[in-house]
Amino acid sequence: MRNRKLLWIFVLPGLLLYGVVFVYPTVLGLVYSFTDWDGFSASFKLTGWKNYHSILESIVFRKAFWNNVKFMAAVVAAQSVISLVLALLLVKNRKTYVFLRALFFFPAILSSVSVGLIWSFVYDPAIGLLSTLFQTLGRPELALNWIGDKKIAIYSIAAVQVWAHAGQMMIVFIAGLQSIPSELHEAAVIDGGSRWRVFRKITWPLLAPSATIVLAYTTIQSFKAFDLIFTMTDGGPNFSTEIMTTYIYHLAFSSYAFGEASAGSSLFLVLLSVLTFLQFKALRAGRISY
Amino acid sequence: MKKSSFRASLWAAALAVMLLVSACSNNTASSSAQENSPAKASEAPAESAQPKVTLSFLHWRGEDTESFNGIIKKFQEENPNITVEMQTLPSDQYQASALAKISDGSTGDLFASFPGAQFEAVANAGLYTDLSGEPFLANYSEALIQAGVKESKQLAVPYQLVYNDPIYNVKIFEQLGLQPPSDWEGFLALCAKLKEKGLIPIAFAGADIGPGQFMNTMVMNNLPSDDAFTKVEAGEDKLTNAWWVKTLSQIKELNDKGYFQPNALGTKDAAAGALFIQEKAAILASGSYQLAQNKAQNPDLTQKLLAPITVPADQAKYEGIHTSTFLLGVNSKSKHPEEAKKFLEFLSRADIAGQYANETGQNVTVKDVEYNTTELKAVSEWGDKKTLFQPRFTIKNSENQKAVTNSIQAVLGGSSPEDAAKEAQAIVDQQLSK
């Protein structure tokens, strides 16, 4: 009985904080999603499911959804592979490797707004670093319109997202690699296994828990992306980089359609919850013991 | 711990929290009572017979802070009972959080807003005090403060005057013997000549501000009307009609002929500005608000404004575009509306508005202001020209505004003007059906 009370005393502050910063705004957002509230007026009217209908029928929202899917697919694929390759290359514990690990991890400590601004300049076709570099190398055809071409803009931003977070995921993979007993590798080598075979049959299966963490984290992070797109293109050109979070932001703070933005947020929350659920299911399935 | 002692500790903790909360609230209450109560004020020394008031002034122009600090100091010297606390938020943040801040009246006794969608939203929420009939309104050019009028009430006073016409490099034009053209053929010939000389004819920030700025001068004579987009938003006209398709075709023509810098859609404001400042581009498709900044970075620049005329000279009704922005309004929830009006009245004086203009490099809507820089003087000459209020700001719904500017990005990205217009109209139709 006493322990139970003590438990509550310790848990209560956390619960209160969670209630105030997550549950309360979520419930409030859900309520506003059924209103025509503009975000600051004292009064509003109930509008039923109207906001949800508007959102689901919106041409821009549909574009935003597909852009989200494209962005997520590009980031998840590239970031998982790159971070794994980096981890495999840098897992050895020598001084140079430690330095290189720190170097690759460095972008993760920068604020995403700063990263977005820096890369806007790097990508600029008139004065940007990439453009100047390709011109100098005599390959102007490679100086693409990175964030101005609607066909590649979303992938250019995805590349920045990968640049910023691959180092972080590399650390997860390195931790996973270091937890694999070296005897297993040694035994496999003695048995005459090639590098690729050892990786395929031993390293990769035992790395599965780390891989699922990386996949889950990357999927959710890329789905929730906002800062980079907001600072680099603000959804342009011609909605080609508009994603759900930027669309919701524009609804709330440019159109002052807070009710509709809340409906968008609720839909986004549902999508994200489904995605998280699937990821965690996969995470459980990926557990391997030895 | 025994059950009873545990309960006692809980009660003690609760009591302590209550005491703490009540002490804080007493403090707050007493201090605010002291601030507002006339009874307390009468006990104060004679020189401060009026109650002390602290005004909150909220805006987004961080670059004007230094100038406003000086102005506020002067105001406080004239009005020792009023203290002005200025708060500036970056414009993105201002869009996102300023309105929430002013809605309960605790912040922003005097606040700034953007014309168009934001002004409409604030007006609809009833957050503006009606300023109609205030004597200081006579200090302004009436035609330039209409952006702050709704249903015949002057709800806010636009303070800054901007001409959203492209800026050109006067020296380059003089060296090449060029003059601002008076028709579309002349404009194309001018761009051809600039390109032939190895210059970028027009630096265009297609990735951010370019479409929203350049569309104004491009459309003003294709449909010479101050309610073109109002009609579109009301469903009485369509973007698929000839005037907007023609505008898109002409923008596309400029791009296809290489009169914008290569890959203009990927260029942001700062980069386009740099091309102009470094004199690699002869024209910058933005507006007069960038003159001071350009000059600061290249003091050798001589700049003026020109608007592309998209029709034959005899059919041109407008010579350029103007916007009056930085709308100053008194918060209807303010506890100190009279003091806020007093501060607005102070800002409306020609000498103070002049100080603001000359220190910040921005023209103002106040009459009889003496400008002391070449750029401000050059811009003030536009006061005599026939200009149209920026069409983009007549679009009240920001989704429609985005649809319109994005149709420009679409044609620059390779879509046909007809398809781009159709795509934009589909979004407008969706807004209409709400």
What does this protein structure show overall?
The complex is a heterodimer of chains A (290) and B (434). Chain A has helices spanning 2-32, 50-57, 59-90, 95-105, 112-123, 129-136, 153-178, 182-190, 195-206, 208-223, 227-232, 244-253, 258-285. Chain A is an all-alpha fold. Chain A is globular and about 75 Å long. In chain B, the strands form 3 sheets. In chain B, strands 1, 2, 3, 6, 11, 12 and 13 form a 7-stranded mixed beta sheet that branches. Chain B is globular. The chains are: A mainly alpha (290), B alpha/beta (434). At the A-B interface, α5 and α12 of A face α4, α5, α11, α16 and α17 of B.
Would you kindly provide a brief summary of this structure?
The complex is a heterodimer of chains A (290) and B (434). Chain A has 290 residues and is an all-alpha fold.
Structural class of chain B, by secondary structure, is alpha/beta
Calculate the terminal CA-CA distance of chain B, rounded to whole Å. Answer: 63 Å
Strand content of chain B: 5-15%
Main β sheet profile of chain A: none
- DSSP summary, beta strand count of chain A: 0
What's the overall average pLDDT of chain A, rounded?
89
Oligomer: heterodimer
Total beta strands of chain B: 13
Which value, in Å, is the CA radius of gyration of chain B?
Answer: 26 Å
Taking pLDDT < 50 over at least 5 consecutive residues as the criterion, the unreliable ranges of chain A are none
Rg of chain A over CA atoms, rounded to whole Å, is: 23 Å
DSSP summary: helix tally of chain A: 13
Coarse shape of chain B: globular
- Nearest-integer average pLDDT of chain B: 88
**Major sheet description of chain B:** 7 strands, mixed
How many angstroms separate the termini of chain A?
40 Å
- Number of H/I helices of chain B: 17
Uncertain residue segments of chain B: 1-47
Q: Assign a percent range to the helix content of chain B.
A: 40-55%
Order of helices and strands of chain A: HHHHHHHHHHHHH
Shape of chain A: globular
